[in-house]
Amino acid sequence: MAASTLGDAQQVESFVHQLINPATRENALLELSKKRENFPELAPYLWHSFGAIAALLQEIVAIYPLLSPPSLTAHASNRVCNALALLQCVASHNETRALFLQAHIPLFLYPFLQTMSKTRPFEYLRLTSLGVIGALVKVDDTDVINFLLSTEIIPLCLRTMEIGTELSKTVATFIVQKILLDDVGLNYICATAERFFAVGAVLGNMVVAQAQMVDQPSQRLLKHIIRCYLRLSDNPRAREALRSCLPELLRNTQFTACLKNDDTTRRWLAQLLMNVGFSDSAAALGAPDVVQPSPVMGA
Amino acid sequence: PSSPQPPSSQAGQPPASPGQLSGQGHVIINPSLGDIPDRLMLKRHVPAAVDRAIGEIITPVVERSVTIACYTTYELVLKDFAGDPDESRLRKAAHLMVSSLAGSLSLVTAKDPLRISLTNQLRQMLQPQVSDAAMLDNIVSVLVNDNLDLGCTLIERAATDKAVRDIDKSLQAAYDERIKARQAGKPWVDPAAYHGAGSRFPGSLPEGLRPRPGGIQAHHLRVYEDFTRIPRTAPAVPPPGTPGAPPGAPDGAAAAAALLDR
């Protein structure tokens, strides 16, 4: 065990060094992105090693000319996605996250989230970019939320929630959910009617789209959508507005039957309906511990 | 001494006014337009349209691109060159990186808005003289295709110029500290780079990855020089022998999906 760990560390170190040489970079990106899950210290290795982050930034900006008009090949997309997976490590790690934010590196991914092409290379590019942002918000850290709210992340997430595949939509909704769960984020989104209705409309459209699916609705997407709505209902003005703009489908027992195996989400939905004032619909979900609206917070 | 200071991009001058930028000589009037350019006085109208289109979008694009590029460059060069006593190497690396990042960001941000703005400008200018809508569309589209890159280049140049000026202001203290250490005959060391506040890193990194005083070599500097080799336009045809992508999602995309499992 110890010997293999040592061997791993040496291998990783060697691949990190290879990142700064264009001739060895592509292979190093591939090898390191395979190792990232089993080597928890990859992030500090990357951050502190001379030029490794600069090299990853070169990979990112080298793709910009292929965004418009869209001409990203599968090969170029895979390569940059490997670089992004390494940045996701840096975003996840407790000892590099703040440095990563301080250097404003997430903003270099925003041009990828602006793209509209639905081809697979672009879809993977958006998904992997969202993965980096998702890794930032996954740990609950108000500094991260403040940073993201000072940027255009909300409109960019909403865009993916409209045009992305199910998986991209879910990651984007997860990001919005994590932003909302922070008080700063909830207050930000509920600060103006325009913001609230922009988020509400996109969440509503996703619910409607799920109901129209040929297959079963996506449970994991619905779970994050419902959590977003529930959190919005903690704000008094949003709670009022949701009375009229919450999709009726969420009170339709035929539609919500798809949640029958997911107690947590069913309880969230029951609490949401109770908060918004649809106590009969809440009761119909059969979640016994939801008996009254949760207290509102903030002003 | 190396406590991070926000780059002073807001203190920089506004980008050069668009009027100085385009210059009559640089616009392209496509020969395929025959005698239309003379009739419509395109030699006068097109530079004016390019100038106005640039003017509509340049200020926010340059501000944003330069600000981001300066933040990133500031943090990364101070980290990478923490053990390097030579301020000229720090300055050179910073210039290479900040120009490239600000230029790339400004191009990717400006391209689509500039296309729209230039189309609108040309359409407004030429509409009174061209009654046939299809012909107007055609002329405008030829002119936009031929001159969009000129507009992009001018915006990119404004961004790179400002970025270099701004990063020098932000890094002035770091340059001065190195000069001062040399004049005093002291070895240069940036203590912050060796003892991250309350962090195990970089101290517990393997020897080969830890920053070392004077440890920078030519192959290190090349990664910064490589910033000048990033293509600014898409290749006309994909490079020969581009290997096919393996089937299925790239590994990176799997990383995003893994976030959702807990």
What is the structure about, briefly put?
Chain A has 299 residues and is an all-alpha fold. Chain A is 69% helix and 0% strand. Chain A is built from 18 helices and no strands.
Characterization of the model:
The complex is a heterodimer of chains A (299) and B (262). Chain A is an all-alpha fold. Chain A folds into two domains: 35-139, Leucine-rich Repeat Variant; 170-293, Alpha Horseshoe (Leucine-rich Repeat Variant). Chain A is built from 18 helices and no strands. Chain A has helices at 2-18, 22-35, 42-48, 52-61, 74-92, 97-102, 110-113, 120-138, 142-149, 153-163, 166-181, 183-189, 193-211, 219-232, 236-245, 253-256, 263-276, 279-284. In chain A, α8 packs parallel to α11 and α14 runs parallel beside α17. The longest helix of chain A is centred in the first third of the chain and has 19 residues, at 74-92. By secondary structure, chain B is mainly alpha-helical. Helix content of chain B is 59%, strand content 0%. Chain B has seven helices and no strands. The relative contact order of chain B is 0.16. Mean pLDDT of chain B is 83; it is low at 1-20. At the A-B interface, α1, α2, α3, α4 and α5 of A face α2, α3, α6 and α7 of B.
**How many strands of chain B?**
0
Tally of helical segments of chain B: 7
Helical content of chain B, roughly?
55-70%
User: What is the H/E order of chain B?
Assistant: HHHHHHH
Mean pLDDT of chain A: 93
Order of helices and strands of chain A: HHHHHHHHHHHHHHHHHH
The CATH superfamily of the largest domain in chain A is: Leucine-rich Repeat Variant
Quickly name the level 1 CATH class of the largest domain in chain A. Answer: Mainly Alpha
> What CATH architecture label of the largest domain in chain A applies?
Alpha Horseshoe
Biggest interface and which pair forms it? A-B, 68 and 61 residues
Please indicate the count of domains of chain A.
2
Which band does the percent of strand residues of chain B land in? under 5%
* 3D shape of chain B: elongated
Protein name (chain A): CCR4-NOT transcription complex subunit 9
InterPro entries (chain A): ARM-like, ARM-type_fold, CNOT9
Pfam family, one (chain A): Rcd1
Family (chain A): Belongs to the CNOT9 family.
